[in-house]
Amino acid sequence: MNKLLLIGIIFLGVNVNVKAQYESDVESIDSIIEALYASISGEAGADRDWDRFKYLFIPEAKLMPTGITPDGKVIYRTWGVEEYTEQVTDYFKQNGFFETELSKEVVQYRYVAHVFSTYESRRTEEGEVIARGINSIQLFYDNDRWWIVSVFWAGETNDAPIPDEYLDGQ
């Protein structure tokens, strides 16, 4: 019985520490979006802070990239947060990846917010831009903190450049 109590206390202590460590990341729409980009960004070989990343999302959250197949069919994938981290960990470990926000549009009603966030990606922090696109991010506020419900994104292509209205002078 004492072992179980000790394990419970240790687990509770770890959860409190994680919450305290990332609490400022979820205080506002701006802070949660900044934390989202920061948590996936880093040099090649650097571990990402997946605990921080996971703390941003509701348990049922989805991450959904879109794309076009070679025959022109528009497709999407759907990952849970854990699936996403499994998909990208090796790639991020082998390749530097930095994603930054260029501009955003926020629409909010009560505890629901939608953020249309234009991004660019690089292999190094100051390197050449390798990709740009738009993240459609749905957020939920529970009167205590913001949560990411989903991230649905589309990458820019030569045939479909990002409209100027979403680049905010970039």
Short characterization:
The protein is an alpha+beta fold and 170 residues long. It contains four helices and six strands. The protein has a single domain, classed as Nuclear Transport Factor 2, Chain: A.
Walk me through this protein's architecture:
This protein has 170 residues and is an alpha+beta fold. It has one domain: Roll (Nuclear Transport Factor 2, Chain: A), CATH 3.10.450. The chain contains four helices and six strands, in the order αααββαββββ. It has helices at residues 2-22, 29-40, 50-55, 81-94, and strands spanning 57-68, 74-76, 98-109, 112-122, 129-141, 146-155. It is globular, with a radius of gyration of 18 Å. 19% of the residues are buried. The mean pLDDT is 91.
Query: In CATH's first tier, which class applies?
Result: Alpha Beta
What is the first-to-last residue Cα distance?
Answer: 61 Å
What is the CATH architecture descriptor? Answer: Roll
Strand pairing plus helix content: what structural class?
Answer: alpha+beta
Strand order of the largest sheet: 2-1-6-5-4-3
Cα-atom radius of gyration: 18 Å
- CATH topology grouping: Nuclear Transport Factor 2, Chain: A
